[in-house]
Specification:
It contains 11 helices and 8 strands. By secondary structure, it is an alpha/beta fold.
Length: 286
Amino acid sequence: MARIGDLLAASRTFSFEFSPPKTAQASLSLGHTIAELAPLGPSFVSVTYGAGGSTRVHTRDTVLWVRKETPVSPMAHLTCVGHTREEISSIVSTYVEAGVHNVLALGGDPPKDPSEARPSEYEYAIDLLRHLRADFDLSIGVAAHPEGHPRSPDLATDRRHLAEKLRIADFAITQFFFEVDHWVRLAEDLASLGVDKPVIPGIMPVTNLDQVQRMAQLSGAAFPTWLRERLESASTPEEVRRVGVEAATELCAGLLEAGVPGLHFYTLNKSTATREIYAQLGLPVA
Ligand code: FAD
């Protein structure tokens, strides 16, 4: 199975992110979405992980299913919140034995209810990253936050922590954002810190205004007025979707022109928006 670091060294990557299904119905639906996206020939697909291990089994099963049943390389997300080194080693050993060598090493967020917190042997994503690098032969990605992570005191501090992660990791994937300049500035800041590892922008097409505004608030991404106004001028949910896909296509086109190493689509387990963006960008479809 391809390693993402090697794929990025060879050419631009196009990848899709899914959440692991928790019911039989959701599994069928995700299988359908993956079948619909297969003709787009993704470089890899990634599967999210519930911080603290809440989707541990579902994430593993989905990653192993993709590895076994499809020609696409999977990447497993892994968060360090609430995990011991032994638990992480056990999870990653299962992946390596199955031929999965791509992992996204994440901090994760502490549970909203502090009484649900489990003891953790890691504090930051970099602690998990160091463990994985020392004990396993993997292609490892990390999260990047173009507008700064919400828990960071300031952008410069967040950039220094990201640069530290990227000196060890092979690549980063960003939180979603809506302006090309955010990626350009991130790449420039990293270059000035001596880091030139690939940073793949994460793309979130807006198909539901309320949902994306909530997610943007949590992730620290600014929801620009021009985009809100464009979406609010749409009179039906279908029209909102159309405008959202159009705006995401413009963002992707600008990013490709700016020289991004790839595009990573947050699919929310649906295929339509991503397929429409592909078509509007004129990207090849089998
Ligand atoms: P970290 O790198 O640990 O950073 C967290 C904060 O600590 C930042 O403010 C950073 O500046 C600071 N920091 C980092 N290192 C240090 C240090 N050495 N000393 C002091 N401060 C430090 N969450 C999930 O639960 N499951 C997922 O599957 C998932 N997938 C994601 C995929 C992508 C592409 C992205 C961008 C995010 C994803 N997240 C996921 C969300 C992520 O877990 C949260 O954003 C989390 O709050 C931070 O993760 P991180 O890996 O950036 O953490």
